[in-house]
Amino acid sequence: MRDFPHAMLREIYEQPEAIRRTLAMYADGAALKTEAWTRLPEWSSAAGEVLIAASGSSRHSGLAAEVMLEDLCGLAVDVEYASEYSCRGSEETRHPSVIVISQSGETSDTLAALREANARGQRTLAITNVASSSMAREATVSLPLGAGKEIAIPATKSFTCQLTVLYLLTLYEGQRRGTLDAAAVGARLAEVTALPASMETQLPGWETAMAELAKKYREASTFLYLARGVHYPIAREGALKLKEASYVHAEGYPSGELKHGPNALVSDKVPVVILAMVDHAVEASRIRYEKTLQLLEDLKAQGAKVIAVANAGDEQVAGLVTDCVFVEPLSEHLLPVVEVVPLQLFSYFMALEHGVDVDRPRNLAKAVIEV
Fold first, then answer.
1. 195-226 per-position pLDDT tens digit
2. What is the pLDDT of residue 89?
3. Which residue of 26, 62, 125, 186 lies most exposed, with the fewest beta carbons within 10 A?
4. Could you tell me if residue 190 is left (phi over 0), alpha (psi between -120 and 50 degrees) or otherwise beta?
């Protein structure tokens, strides 16, 4: 068994098994486990409105869920910073169902948001890594994760397990609302069931590639992370990971917003990290991809240094960027679970390059509870 030098790297490598455990809680082969979802109708809003409240990485998983639930279920979803939502008071005239997301289930801002929603009489759903946590106990319904204890402050396996459960929630709601038929749900479940093995196969190559890129870009003091659609929250997560793990500044933007200000920062000293994944079976994904290719051409003309995460074998993207890391293709709404992993590894190795104690970055704390 490999001896990992840091909890963060070990937890990155634990993600395939953590996802398997999480899947086993809610799905059985090509079908959702009926008993795991029996209480979900108690949570759903008749108006089809959902509000997601979370902080940090958990908010980024919520932003991805916003796209999943809107695209595949037809729900109307808003995502709030938990710290803002808990301070808004009771002037809210709408009454959406509320999802709170937290690794520990004890995050103070998110717990306050849950209690505010409960006080308003709203139906609440808690997604946490601790089935006995305050959020799990106080919410109308709880969907725990199977990530296991996470020690490192930068969230990795809890984040990908959050994305997994939110994807399964999307399949459940899509099936219940009739926007996804049984065959579509079965096909998507088969794909997500195969995901952990694919991730295991790819992890060593990503580790090698990102260690080399961290050495190459160690002198950069600022990065811009760009993506579109459901991938944009992953760009934000990659930027957050870099900041908290290595103390290197980074910002995540929608790719189309680059020319509305941030492009002034782009130079050979400010590298760009861009998620250029595509699901060729989805027209909207193809359109976003074509726009990304055009942006990459523009960045190349500017002389920018660009790191891309792209579909395995995508020579178009590889020919337009400085460095390219490949990920095996998946369906559009499942790609975030996998494409985030190279970004986690990049932040880990950048931390090592800067001499940071990656498991315990300065000024940050984490609630770690036995699970």
1. 999 999 999 999 999 999 999 999 998 999 99
2. 65
3. 186
4. alpha
Q: Judge whether 15 and 156 are in contact, CB under 8 Å.
A: yes
Cα–Cα distance for residue pair 298/71, rounded to 1 Å: 30
Taking a C-beta distance cutoff of 8 angstroms, is the pair 68, 333 a contact?
A: yes
pLDDT > 50? residue 269: yes
Structure tokens given for 69: 């639930």
Same fold, 7-194 and 200-353: yes
Q: Does residue 106 surpass a pLDDT of 50?
A: yes
Q: 335-353 vs 182-216: helix axis angle to the nearest 10?
A: 20
Average of per-residue pLDDT values in the chain: 93
CA angle 346, 129, 248 (to 5 degrees): 25
**Strand pairing class (31-32; 27-28):** antiparallel
- Residue 280 pLDDT exceeds 90: yes
Per the CB < 8 A criterion, the answer to whether 101 and 127 are in contact is: yes
CATH number given to 200-353: 3.40.50.10490
Q: Which CATH class is domain 7-194?
A: alpha beta
Cβ-proximal residues to 115 (8 Å cutoff; 6+ apart), any chain: 86, 138
Residues 294-335 pLDDT 10s: 999 999 999 999 999 999 999 999 999 999 999 999 999 999
Opening angle at CA 53, ends 222 and 249, nearest 5: 5
Cβ(175)–Cβ(183) under 8 Å? no
Angle among Cα 196, 127, 190 to the nearest 5 degrees reads: 30
> In 137-167, which positions are buried (b, 16+ CB within 10 angstroms) versus exposed (e)?
ebbbbbbbbbbbebebbbbbbbbbbbbbbbb
Work out the burial of residue 121: count CB atoms within 10 Å of its CB; fewer than 13 is exposed, 13-18 middle, 19 or more buried. Answer: exposed
Give the separation between CA 305 and CA 145, rounded to whole angstroms: 38
C-alpha distances in angstroms, 152 versus 15, 109, 130, 159?
13, 20, 16, 12
Average pLDDT in the 135-163 region?
95
Which strand ranges, in their side-by-side order, compose the sheet holding 141-142? 76-81, 49-54, 97-102, 124-128, 141-142
Rounded Cα gap, residues 287 and 341, in angstroms: 25
Any idea what the Cα angle at residue 58 is, between residues 248 and 7, rounded to 5°?
A: 60
* Residue 368 pLDDT: 44
